[in-house]
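Lab notebook, bench 4. The sequencing result for the construct came back, and we need a structural model before the next group meeting so we can plan mutations. Quick request posted to the team channel:

Model the 3D structure of this chain.
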Amino acid sequence: MGTVSGILEDNEKLVSQFQAQRFSSLKEVPDFYTFKKGLFYSHRDFDVFLEKLNKGEKSAIVSGVNASGTLQLGHKTVFDTNLFFQKKYGVPVYIPISDDESYVAKKVKTREEAVKNGVKLIIDLIAYGFDLKLTKIVFDFYFTDIFSIAMNLSRHVTMSEIKAVYGYQNEDNIGLHFYPNVQAAHVLFPEINDGIKNTLVPIGPDEDAHLRLGRDIAVRAGYQKPAIIHAKFVPGIDGLKMSKSRPDSAIFLHDTADVIKKKVSKAFSGGKDTIEEHRKSGGDPDVDISLMYLSMYFLDEEESSRLREDYKHGKILSGELKKMLIEKVTEFNKNFEERRKKVTFEQVKQVLLHNAYDQHLEEIKNIFDKIKS
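Done. Here's the predicted structure in token form:
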């Protein structure tokens, strides 16, 4: 895939090949920056979810994280949207931590590594600002009830479907073949466990196959299909699709000021080769990553529009945009780390689902203490 310009191909494919609806076709969207700035590209039944929510029907959000890595700036679209619904409507947010998938997919070497990553993510999610009373962590390796639900749902999906959707072969481990049932259990958990039928699942376009299958399973099992919104793909700092094989392609929330400066200084630019040429002809605001990140996450629409025009007409240089982004991200990460230092184990216990983790609390606390030390 080429730089920046081809980054939305996966988003568009969901509309042209898999019947997702464009967000631009909606008559009404919530008054929040992720919607107003068009950070979501398409949806499945979001209008239905929103109508029921506005009528007062009890609703929920399911928003999972994978225990194979750490949070990065690209998570901001989905996380801030979750927080919007949580704060404005009092919607509970269920967060599955798929430490089991990280293990069976060999994204981590050991189960212990997956669990440790999961505890780190819980600390990060609390630091990010999720409401402790309205956030429910589903930590798969510990909350084993999720596998009972997955087993019940397994009668509603065939091996042929799994192979067709995921491309798995007979040589792949059986955990991979079964895991789609666990994902279906995640997205249906609010209805199965708490009777909340109106559920929204914000995801990236690369996760849509999981949810298409999950929605099919829901219908076959007699549950309501969850609504889906697809975030726009965000290009990496180098203008390409982010990849774990290129760690410098993403800005992580744990990156220090020096690391942020180093990464942003190498950001893909829409500027000209020389200052003189840039002043004369201007830059390309559609491909400049620093401008893109600033506009998406840190500036209001008026500021973004003004900056875009100034860059387009050569009034602002690429280096100046990079400096602005370095300052914004450095401040954001600094504040995040300060909140993270204050997270306590009592807060971790509060977001763990019900009393399901009581027998594992000592193990989780030992991991927590090692992380915080």
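The CA atoms of residues 53 and 59 lie 6 Å apart.
Will bring this to the meeting.
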